[in-house]
Amino acid sequence: MTAAGPSRILLVDDREENLLALEAILGGLGHELLRATSGQQALKHLLVEDVSLILLDVQMPEMDGYETAAHIKSRLRTQDIPIIFLTAIDREAHQAYRGYAAGAVDFLAKPFDPWVLRAKVEVFLGLQQERRQLLMRAQDLERRLEAVGGENLDAALARVERLLLMAADGARPEGPLAEALDGLRDVRNDLSGPVELNR
Fold first, then answer.
1. Are 57 and 18 in contact (CB under 8 A)?
2. Most exposed: 6, 38, 81, 105, by fewest CB within 10 Å?
3. Distance separating alpha carbons of residues 127 and 19, to the nearest angstrom
4. CB 103 within 8 A of CB 70
5. For residue 111, is the peptide bond before it cis, meaning its omega torsion is within 30 degrees of 0?
6. Is 8 in contact with 34 (CB distance < 8 Å)?
7. What are phi and psi of 95, to 5 degrees?
């Protein structure tokens, strides 16, 4: 699974050689790579840049990766950006747990296999692209439902009910027709309240 087009990836590491290595590994994928050498600098980038994925080093001075991730996840604008933690810390389970608890979608210990990193980056970018498309569809559906409004739904339901009565020679429809009419009423009732979407 790959992302539909070029995405923006934020690389966060306090060591220049690590940033250069990440750029060398990911450069051929065709995505825009932003770099930050501290948690503070990463947070500043995220104030003005739309980012699809963050590769975040755990061990950094002043603000470590866990604290940086906590700030990222606390902001409405950035809370849904996937974070992959990169760390030279030993592979003990509690370190990975701490990373996932901080909001990471994955946790890679250094040195990591470049091909594994590239594959994971493409998978998470693809998932993020799909998530954005679903959110756009949900927002479009919400706009359409608001445009229809309750009165139009009532009028449409009344028109369908009249047609069904005419088809049944004036008698109250029974069987499948009655079930269909009741189903339409249920839909109307469901749509007349506020539409709640999971974001």
1. yes
2. 6
3. 24
4. yes
5. yes
6. yes
7. -70, -45
Query: Model confidence over 30-61: pLDDT tens digits?
Result: 899 999 999 999 999 999 999 999 999 988 88
- The total number of residues written for the chain in this structure: 199
* 3-class secondary structure per residue, the chain: CCCCCCCEEEEECCCHHHHHHHHHHHHHHCCEEEEECCHHHHHHHHHHCCCCEEEEECCCCCCCHHHHHHHHHHCCCCCCCCEEEEECCCCCHHHHHHHHHCCCCEEEECCCCHHHHHHHHHHHHHHHHHHHHHHHHHHHHHHHHHHHHHHHHHHHHHHHHHHHHHHCCCCCCCCHHHHHHHHHHHHHHHHHCCCCCCC
Query: Rounded to an integer, what distance in angstroms lies between the CA atom of residue 60 and that of residue 14?
Result: 6
Is the full-model pTM beyond 0.70?
no
- Is there a contact between 72 and 103 (Cβ–Cβ < 8 Å)? yes
Q: How far apart are CA 162 and CA 145, in angstroms?
A: 23
